[in-house]
């Protein structure tokens, strides 16, 4: 069966593609919706399609107090169709990147103890990532990832982090550090193949 996934941004797309490939679910189409608002406006339609198709929706928790509350605000679990996985990332997708602490530290050229031991509890993982990059010895990452002027992120943010995901990030290590990621993997296993 083909899987259709809807995500907020390109970084989430890179991570989800990596996860699906490692779980031998590489027959998935991943659509980037460019923001939570675009996901939310179509969530009812995605759920309708999930009656006959496996649908994955991934979004960041953002400022909502807890992931279950974020799910219920958009699509209460009681009305979700069997083919629907609607998962809220605790707090932002960057937490899943940092969950492979050893490889992330090596990539940044910093010490492992500088990477959060429990990235799920970091309230603003993107800002933490910026802080780590600022302290990195890798100037090319600073130019690529850190925001300049009024930009929210650097010009090569998605490219560089996507490259890290493709070449270095290890799902089997990340799930040991991120319970949120572990829960998502468990949900994936529940879908019909």
Description of the molecule:
This protein is of the alpha/beta class and 193 residues long. It is 48% helix and 12% strand. It is built from 11 helices and 4 strands, in the order βαβααβαβααααααα. The protein has a 4-stranded parallel β-sheet with strand order 2-1-3-4, sandwiched between helices. α4 links the parallel β3 (54-60) and β4 (84-89). α10 packs across α11 (179-190). It is globular, with a radius of gyration of 16 Å.
What is this structure, in a nutshell?
This protein is of the alpha/beta class.
Strand arrangement in the largest pleated sheet: 2-1-3-4
The H/E string reads: EHEHHEHEHHHHHHH
> What form results from the Cα inertia axes?
globular
Low-confidence stretches: none
Give the structural class: alpha/beta
Task: Return Rg in Å.
Answer: 16 Å
User: Roughly what fraction of the amino acids lie in strands?
Assistant: 5-15%
Number of strands: 4
Helix fraction, binned, reads: 40-55%
| Contiguous helical run count | 11
> What is the CA-CA span between the terminal residues?
6 Å
Please state the average pLDDT score. Answer: 91
Largest sheet: 4 strands, parallel
Give the tags.
alpha/beta; 12% strand; 11 helices; 193 residues
Please write out the topology.
Layout: E1 3-7, H1 10-22, E2 28-32, H2 36-40, H3 43-49, E3 54-60, H4 67-74, E4 84-89, H5 94-98, H6 101-108, H7 125-134, H8 139-145, H9 157-167, H10 171-177, H11 179-190
Parallel strand pairs: 1-2, 1-3, 3-4
Helix pairs in contact: 1-9, 10-11
